[in-house]
Amino acid sequence: MSKRQFEATATREGKWWVVEVEDVGATQGRNVAEAREMAKDLVAAV
After folding, report:
1. Distance separating alpha carbons of residues 15 and 34, to the nearest angstrom
2. pTM of this structure
């Protein structure tokens, strides 16, 4: 099984980090580590 790569962009919006994953969607986290985990979960769910 080959792994796919996804490009994501994180921006700070107030107290949150918003992560937009190209061709997948968006999620957010309170800190960078949480935002990264949420982005991984988003990709896995989709």
Report:
1. 12
2. 0.84
